[in-house]
């Protein structure tokens, strides 16, 4: 039985939920010279520009990061307190230089392609950098707003180096384990295999949760790490929410376009362009996407409801850094794909995209055929891939929704477009982690500042809970 009385309940033990619980309980670069040497192979001009480009992103990231761990001001502003918060925000903006302010406006409004065109001439350099603008996004490299997604993926860092991605020793589960350990050390109780069926609301306030087992856990505070649609449309009676709020949540866009394939390998893939193994590139993020046009065509397929015939494929082999993830001599490889829409349409003669001949609009039918198709695409660059693949797991947007509770399979808990960010996330008037139900908070990526493994929504939510406790 999982019943009892608690000080606060956090629904969903993702990294933001665990971050929120922990704070409540607690109350090298690859080598810069080598990078430039590789860029010179494509463009001397771009190699000269690259350090300035990185410095520009550094300044933009510093500005953006300073807002990540703040609560958005009330919107629309009302009352003296709200006006003071907006004045503080205006003061922060006033401190920006003209170049920083211009760059900030552009990064929110431009496409990744247009943004990169201002810096580089080489198609190879531009498409390599543009991939950060479309990962997890419902748009192509020429879609307005994808420049911000690019910046979002460049924020943070590893070992003091901004913009680097890190492999976690022991796998990504080790992050959750460390957060869980910290939360428990400060008094949190973590229940697993205990899905929440309903949020309890009594006398107009959140009072706890009902588990699928029927057990009740009571608390004066409930923080949901689930996405906004699942939180408000599945765990609450809509009659408890203002009609306009419910309508806005229903319109919150969270169509996923990402697909993940996990491979178990008996050896390293060998690339025709870089023979020999092991190579430095095996420890890098490897992209299969020859040009901006290639990625844009992949998006064209998906926006009409079919998986991309030739998708953007991002490959990583974490066992190059952490051999403990596989038996000796073996490896694991992850493939992250854009674009595979959650909602599929029937294939037609004029509609592009993947078609296995069945005409199916079900990911349950297309999962394995599409996984095999992707393996064929990888084989164009790694001829030995089928020889070294021992097993593979295909996670479609439908699987991401079923396994991880991501509505629409959206890895960000909702599109990170301009109109769904900052004071508009998840909806206008409710971007401050509180909800129309007193005592109920939102602590996941559907709140400001959005998706990514950074814990900011959980941290910000914990601060608001403690402020109003």
Automatic annotation (TrEMBL):
GO terms for molecular function: oxidoreductase activity. InterPro entries: Amino_oxidase, FAD/NAD-bd_sf. SUPFAM superfamilies: FAD/NAD(P)-binding domain (SSF51905). It comes from the Bacteria. Residues 143-254 form the Amine oxidase domain. Gene3D superfamilies: FAD/NAD(P)-binding domain. Probable oxidoreductase that may play a role as regulator of mitochondrial function. PANTHER family: PHYTOENE DEHYDROGENASE, PYRIDINE NUCLEOTIDE-DISULFIDE OXIDOREDUCTASE DOMAIN-CONTAINING PROTEIN 2. Interacts with COX5B; this interaction may contribute to localize PYROXD2 to the inner face of the inner mitochondrial membrane. This is Pyridine nucleotide-disulfide oxidoreductase domain-containing protein 2. It comes from Paludibaculum fermentans.
């Amino acid at each position: 039985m999982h019943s009892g009385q608690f000080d606060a309940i956090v629904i969903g033990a993702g990294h933001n939920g665990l971050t929120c619980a922990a704070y409540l309980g607690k109350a090298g670069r690859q080598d810069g010279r080598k990078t430039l040497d590789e860029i010179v192979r494509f463009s001397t001009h771009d190699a000269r520009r690259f350090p300035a480009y990185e410095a520009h992103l550094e300044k933009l990231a510093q500005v953006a990061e300073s807002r990540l761990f703040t609560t958005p001001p009330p919107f629309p502003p009302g009352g003296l307190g709200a006006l003071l918060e907006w004045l503080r925000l205006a003061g922060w903006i006033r401190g920006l230089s003209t170049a920083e302010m211009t760059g900030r406006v552009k990064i929110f409004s431009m496409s990744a392609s247009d943004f990169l065109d201002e810096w580089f001439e080489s198609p190879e350099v531009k498409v390599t950098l543009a991939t950060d603008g479309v990962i997890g996004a419902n748009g192509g490299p020429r879609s307005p707003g994808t420049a911000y997604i690019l910046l979002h993926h460049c924020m943070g860092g590893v070992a003091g180096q901004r913009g680097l991605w890190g492999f976690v020793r022991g796998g990504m589960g080790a992050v959750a384990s460390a957060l869980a350990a910290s939360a428990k050390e400060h008094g949190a109780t973590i229940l697993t295999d205990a899905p929440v069926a309903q949020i309890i609301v009594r006398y107009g306030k959140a009072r706890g949760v009902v588990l699928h087992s029927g057990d009740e856990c009571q608390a004066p505070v409930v923080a949901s790490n689930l996405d906004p649609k699942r939180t408000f449309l599945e765990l609450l009676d809509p009659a408890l929410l203002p009609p306009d709020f419910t309508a806005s949540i229903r319109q919150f866009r969270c169509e996923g376009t990402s697909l993940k394939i996990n491979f178990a390998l008996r050896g390293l893939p060998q690339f025709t362009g870089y023979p020999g193994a092991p190579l430095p590139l095996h420890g890098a993020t490897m992209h299969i996407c020859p040009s901006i046009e290639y990625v844009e065509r992949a998006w064209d397929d998906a926006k009409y409801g079919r998986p991309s015939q030739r998708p953007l494929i991002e490959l990583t082999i974490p066992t190059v850094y952490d051999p403990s993830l596989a038996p000796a001599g073996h490896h694991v490889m992850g493939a992250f794909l854009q674009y595979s829409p959650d909602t599929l349409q029937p294939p037609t003669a004029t509609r592009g995209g993947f078609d296995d001949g069945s005409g199916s609009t079900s990911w349950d039918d297309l999962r394995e055929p599409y996984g095999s198709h992707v393996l064929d695409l990888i084989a164009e660059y790694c001829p030995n891939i089928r020889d070294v693949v021992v097993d593979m797991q295909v996670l479609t947007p439908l699987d991401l929704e079923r396994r991880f509770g991501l509505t629409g399979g959206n890895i960000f808990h909702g599109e990170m477009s301009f109109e769904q960010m900052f004071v508009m996330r998840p909806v206008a008037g409710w971007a401050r982690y509180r909800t129309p139900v007193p005592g109920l908070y939102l602590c996941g990526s559907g709140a400001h500042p959005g998706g990514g493994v950074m814990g900011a929504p959980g941290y910000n939510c914990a601060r608001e809970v403690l402020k109003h406790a």
